[in-house]
Design a protein that fits this description.
Elements (H helix, E strand, L loop, with lengths): L2 H13 L8 H12 L2 H12 L5 H15 L28 E9 L9 E3 L5 E6 L5 H11 L23 E7 L4 E7 L12 E3 L6 E3 L5 E3 L5 H23 L15 H7 L7 H7 L4 H17 L4 H28 L2 H28 L11 H18 L23 H14 L2 H22 L11 H8 L1 H27 L13 H20 L2 H46 L4 H14 L2 H13 L5 E10 L2 E8 L9 H4 L2 H17 L7 E4 L7 H15 L4 E5 L2 H14 L3 E9 L3 E6 L9 H19 L6 H27 L23 H18 L14 H28 L1
Helix pairs in contact: 2-19, 3-4, 3-6, 6-18, 8-18, 9-18, 10-17, 11-14, 14-16, 15-16, 20-22, 23-24, 25-26, 25-28, 26-27, 26-28, 27-28
């Protein structure tokens, strides 16, 4: 956008001086910059730009509010403050920025490319189009580009297109009073300042409406933003209140934690200010604290049942039982020890060596004996048995063997012959020899060690079976240590026992560390506890233990409810933040600024202008109440029915939608009348819902306004179009009419620089027939391939020619004294009218020439031939001559009357 336009506007604004009426939007912007937070300014921006806030708007604003208030959420949308780019510009009476054309529209509905919609730089421009002609697409672009007050409908691309278009675009030609300048507009981009001074009015721009209390109220241009902002505050309060109510804060679930403990003190003052770190710390017991809690619980139970001295004795009894168990364990340790194992291993080694020596000695001494096996173990057993028998029974007191004369063999009881006596002495000599003594000594060592080793009991719990469970309860680690040691020792005992039996050493054995030290400590700990009970005074100790237990137990129970309590505190914090947030919704600032601007804007002159405009639109039975009214945050001027008999009747009960629309238009015009702003006005279907009488009044009023400023009207109402034409002629106002048309074949938004056929005057219709349709007919005449097209064009030509004859009767012959669509008859227009026989003849002939080509030909009757272009031109010329003749005659008649 060229800078010179805005520079001109700015200089003219400055030049307008202090006499200018306050600009509501500039004041609102200044107020927003000075006093509103980002989310409030964003909300104000939306209320300025939109007729109503959507649910999405409310949710986005709520998100920004929560983010600013520290409610623990981040907004999906960043706050965008109200700025100069969001409000209509303030232009002075000397600022003449006007719209000249719209062109190069892209991605705007289904509007076809290459169209140019032109506007009169002054006076009235009427853009007529049926529904679905593309009219709303052009109007929506202007609403957004010119920063129309109220909601701007979304500018959609062609929804049936398969491509993915970009944002809507258009080139808008403006004139700054000296030259034409093209402005490129794109949807979503900041609207140019030079377009912001153009007023746009549609059904959503009304200054007068039925408010929430069912009263019809008037709000000056821009000040309805305060009302919408106040309503938004109420809605946000409701939403936040609902959120607060949804946050459950039932503290009854923690009733069991109350009391004189640290936890109880926390709960006694439970609030949003409760320190979460303290709760976290109290809810976590350290290892030593858990042990203290268990000990205190046990001691309390014991103290409440047993006398401390009895308990001390009970502990000592258990201690003595453990000590007895320890003695047995130590006995096992002493027997199944590394010393014992070493002795057995050494003895077995020596025994093996002695046996080998004995074997060698026997082989040398008893070679040639009649029986083998002498000195074998069975033989030795037998020999020793014979010795015992001799010394104890046969020959007591005599050394063995007894070989004296007459002695008998103690084995066979036969007399000893010399050879037998000699053999016995030889046996004794062998047995008493050193080798045999070593063998015997080694065997004695084995017998001694093996006996004590084999006989040791490895079942220390056998004498006190309950002790195993008690040790488990006292210290499970020590109990496990004992059991594992006994298992290992048992395995070693079995192996060594097998070695003493077989007299063969199988392996090397590692004796594990014994648990005796741990068992001794168990006994010592019991003695310490017993001594503690010796010192106890039951009542005092119970009180002390109860205090300690209550503190630790409360913390243990808090641990089970920690998550719930933390959530409860967080909920309290959230509720408090919401409460504080809701308290910030004060409408005092809104009320103050609204009242201030209302006082400045609703002047006595404006009230008089409102009365005048209401009278112009035939709603003067409505009067402005000079006493302001309002509700929280906003100030209104109520409108009342001017009735002496029904003073209590509310306007909302009697005003139709059309009457409210008329009052709204009157309000707009009254404001413009008392404002230095001279920008043009764009009306989009201004007479929707109006009855035909008020449409006529509105048409007249807008034509009058078009003599002061540029007025552009989009309409689909043919009656309204006709009324605008009529009053433009009557007022001598400049008026141009364009038509928008569309269909599936050619798309929408096609611009025709002419008025719609039904709205064209006779001269315009003749121009269309002569300059367009007849030209086309001549062009295709004679082409056999276009025969059907030619016939259709001829039918269209005669149909329109007949309609033009009918319009000529109305417009020329009777000088518009009677018009279709118009309710009144204007007799004064008959001043120019005369009637001659020739008039009847020419009209009848002209209409009949059209009709004969339009009527259906009966079956069996030869139809008239299709006329050629010369015949069509002759029939059209007849109408031109008639129209020219009647116009000249009317002017002459007016002079003579």
């Amino acid at each position: 956008m060229p800078e010179n336009i805005d520079a001109v506007i700015e200089s003219q604004n400055t030049a307008s001086g202090s006499d200018a009426r306050p600009n509501a939007y500039q004041e609102i912007l200044r107020w927003s910059e000075q006093q509103l937070s980002p989310w409030q300014s964003d909300a104000l921006r939306r209320t300025v730009q939109q007729h109503e806030l959507t649910d999405q708007d409310v949710q986005e604003i709520l998100g920004m509010l929560k983010a600013e208030s520290g409610l623990g959420v981040s907004s999906a949308v960043e706050a965008k403050r109200l700025s100069e780019k969001d409000i209509p510009a303030y232009t002075s009476a000397t600022s003449k920025v006007v719209l000249e054309a719209m062109r190069e529209l892209k991605n705007v509905n289904a509007i076809v490319p290459g169209q140019t919609l032109s506007f009169n730089s002054s006076g009235l421009t009427i853009v007529y189009g049926h529904n679905a002609s593309g009219k709303s697409g052009y109007a929506r672009v202007l609403k957004k580009a010119c920063r129309a007050r109220g909601e701007k409908d979304e500018v959609l691309p062609d929804v049936f297109s398969s491509s993915s278009p970009g944002p809507a675009e258009a080139v808008i030609d403006v004139n700054d009073g000296s030259k034409s300048v093209p402005i490129k507009w794109q949807d979503g981009a900041t609207s140019p300042d030079s377009l912001a001074g153009i007023n746009v009015f549609d059904s959503k721009c009304a200054r007068v409406y039925v408010d929430g209390s069912n009263e019809v109220v008037y709000v000056p241009y821009g000040l309805d933003a305060f009302d919408k902002l106040a309503k938004l505050y109420e809605k946000l309060k409701t939403l936040l209140q609902a959120e607060m109510n949804a946050i459950l804060v039932d503290a009854n679930q923690f009733n069991d934690l109350h009391g004189g403990t640290s936890v109880g003190q926390i709960l006694a003052t439970l609030s949003h200010q409760t320190n979460l770190e303290i709760v976290e710390r109290l809810a976590k017991l350290q290892t030593d604290e858990e042990k203290k809690l268990i000990d205190a619980e046990k001691k309390l139970a014991e103290l409440k049942v047993n006398d401390p001295k009895v308990k001390a004795e009970t502990l000592r009894i258990k201690k003595r039982r453990i000590e007895r168990f320890l003695t047995q364990m130590e006995r096992i340790v002493s027997v199944v020890s590394i010393d014992t194992v070493t002795k057995i291993k050494t003895a077995l080694t020596e025994l093996s060596a002695a046996k080998e020596a004995s074997k060698l000695a026997s082989q040398k001494s008893f070679q040639g004996e009649p029986l083998s096996g002498v000195t074998s173990d069975p033989w030795k057993i037998m020999y020793e048995a014979a010795r015992a028998f001799s010394e104890q029974h046969a020959y007591p007191g005599e050394p063995f063997p007894v070989t004296k004369d007459g002695a008998k063999c103690v084995l066979c009881f036969q007399d000893l012959i010399p050879e037998a006596a000699k053999r016995l002495k030889q046996f004794e000599q062998f047995v008493t020899d050193r080798t045999e003594k070593l063998l015997k000594a080694a065997q004695q060592v084995i017998d001694k060690e093996a006996k004590s080793f084999q006989e040791i009991m490895l079942t220390p719990y056998q004498s006190d079976p309950d002790l195993e469970n008690e040790i488990q309860e006292l210290n499970s680690s020590v109990a496990s240590q004992i059991n594992l040691w006994l298992q290992d020792i048992t395995k070693i005992h079995i192996k060594i026992t097998e070695s003493t039996t077989s007299l063969k050493w199988e392996s090397t054995y590692q004796i594990p560390s014994d648990p005796c030290t741990s068992i001794r400590k168990l006994a010592d700990d019991l003695e310490l506890k017993a001594k503690e009970f010796d010192k106890i005074s039951a009542a005092e100790e119970i009180k002390k233990l109860e205090t300690e237990y209550a503190e630790l137990d409360a913390r243990r129970r808090l641990s089970a409810k920690k998550t719930n309590l933390m959530d409860h505190i967080k909920n309290l914090q959230s509720r408090e933040k919401i409460r504080v947030c809701m308290n910030s919704f004060s409408t005092t600032g809104i009320s103050k600024k609204n009242a201030e601007l209302t006082e400045q804007l609703v002047t006595e002159r404006l009230k008089e202008d409102l009365k005048t405009e209401f009278k112009n639109l035939s709603v003067d039975y409505v009067k402005i109440d000079l006493n302001k009214s309002g509700r929280q945050g906003v100030v209104f001027h109520k409108l009342h029915l001017q009735s002496s008999t029904h003073r209590a009747v509310s306007l909302s009960d009697v005003l139709s939608e059309g009457e409210q629309r008329a009052i709204a238009i009157g309000s707009l015009l009254a404001e413009l009348k008392s404002s230095p702003m001279s920008g043009g006005i764009v009306f989009d279907d201004p007479v929707s819902s109006l009855d035909h009488v008020r449409r006529e009044l509105v048409a007249k009023r807008l034509v009058v306004e078009s003599k002061k400023r540029q007025v552009i009207i989009f309409t689909h109402d043919l009656f309204f179009l006709s009324s605008l034409q009529h009053h433009s002629d009557a007022e001598g106002a400049s008026c141009s009419i364009q038509t928008l048309w569309g269909n599936r074949a050619y798309g929408t938004g096609n611009c025709d620089p002419n008025a719609p056929w039904d709205g064209q005057k006779v001269t315009e219709r003749i121009g269309y027939l002569k300059g367009h349709l007849l030209v086309k007919i001549k062009k295709i005449h004679g082409d056999r391939s276009l025969k059907e097209e030619y016939e259709r064009c001829v039918d269209d030509f005669y149909n329109k020619l007949r309609q033009t004859w009918e319009r000529a009767i109305e417009e020329r012959l009777f000088n518009d004294a009677v018009q279709r669509f118009r309710e009144s008859v204007q007799p004064q227009r008959l001043k120019e009218v005369t009637f001659e026989e020739r008039d009847y003849t020419e009209v009848t002939k002209g209409v009949e020439s059209c009709t004969k080509h339009l009527h259906d030909t009966p079956r069996g009757v030869q139809g008239s031939p299709i006329p050629d272009p010369a015949e069509l031109e002759a029939d059209l010329e007849a109408l031109c001559s008639f129209e020219d003749r009647i116009e000249k005659r009317n002017k002459a008649t007016r002079k003579t009357r």
